[in-house]
Amino acid sequence: MAGISSKRNKLLHRFYEPLVLLYALDQFQGDQLYSDNNRPSLDDATEKELRRRYLNSLSYICDYKKGGDTVTAIGAAANPLRYYIASNKAPQRKVTDFLESVFSKLEQVYNMNGEERIQMESMLLKACVEFSEQRIRTYLRFLQLSMKECAKAVQDKPVLENFIRERVNTFTGHKKSESPFRAAKHYIGRIAAHVKNVKVLLAAAQRLPQLVLKPEIIPIKNPPSIVLPAPRGSSLKLDSIANRMVPSSQSQLLSELRSSLQTLDRLFSIENTFRRAYLEKNPRARVHAELIVLEYFYERSATLEHWDNDRFIGCSKPACYCCSLYFQEHPADVEPPSTHQRIYLNWLPPTNLPGVEDPSSRLATLEKKMLNAMVQRIRIRTIEQIRSQTGRRQKQYDSTTGETYSTHTKAASMEKQLERIDTLPVAEGENWIDAPSILVTRVADPENEYANNDAEAGLIVSLENVHLSRQITESCEDSDDEQGVKLLGFV
């Protein structure tokens, strides 16, 4: 792709400047929003609800590596049945081959009896775990690290009391600092998610067999990534940024913002954070998978329709803050996805295609319309955050993890349950620090009081085939460049 024109460069900087400032203020823009928080059981789900969950689950099993490159999105079209698949990094042949093998199993489910379906569930789960071995191995390692910290914490009464208080606060909306228990719960849930998603696939294959019968799988080519030219250093002063965000006619608001920014800068070094993010990090921006599918369908809307005219795109993980805004502002009127509300500075609009540099092109017109609409909302959000002078939020995980107990458990009874954390059943000779899979088995066991009802003990059979590296990672922190955890210590 040719270089960025000066006119488009100005448009992109107008967009990224308030976004980077908002990132410097707080990378997380609100609580995670999930459309399925109150979803019915698989048996009670409508065909539309089941089909949407099926597309999400199909995307999830294709996302085989933690870190962002393999985040997958899928759109479904009929007559004939086609699945259009995209990932943050172009889908590899191994993904389409894997999907074909999955469909060859799912198409048999409709004619199976109960016992045969149970056997097929085990077969499909085993195949999914083996395909995602690298991802699960990462989760197991992080779980092991968290469990070591949990073991230390349960010996320390004040730490344990803080953990109990944190769990109670889950129900009152107060979020405290990160704890090893929270991290352990997250990684256990991530491992058990394979069981949940396989159950969704089987339910859809049984109730909606038309979705699995010899579909065509079509990978979508990724738009090119770009490195944005750095702006002049003099334009990165907080006062200058405030001037560009507020009309000159609103002098009182401008004065208030300048004063608030000075206060925030003293507390959190906002200007230095902003400069580092904008200049030193120099992220290579790329288009996220769900937007690739969105624009592919929109560009071909005259001939390409979503299945049953249900404008929905499945994805292996919730959308980021910018993707969520893009969906909300897009003329295609596709159902906005769940979102983890996190800002990624390597975000790029899906209009970054050949022809966008021509200001008279359809692509350029759409990009200008979308980015201008988004920047208005980002500026409003940034101004609100500056005026409120709130601190940064606790780290949130991009992927959603369901609780391992009923979400209807009353907070009043929770402390009594959590006081028993040190009595988690461990058989003689077992070490719950060195063998986190023991706890995973217990969580996945529907007969266990700590279990998740959507999981099953059979998960451990597949996990036994996953090699766990003994090399300890140096970092468990999320990376903007990789949109996930940087796996420095893994082979």
UniProtKB/TrEMBL annotation:
Task: Fetch the Pfam families from UniProt.
Answer: OTT_1508_deam (PF14441)
Highest taxon of source: Eukaryota
Where do the segments described as Disordered lie?
Answer: 389-414
Biased composition, class Polar residues, residue ranges = 397-410
Protein name listed in UniProt: Uncharacterized protein
The species is Exophiala aquamarina CBS 119918
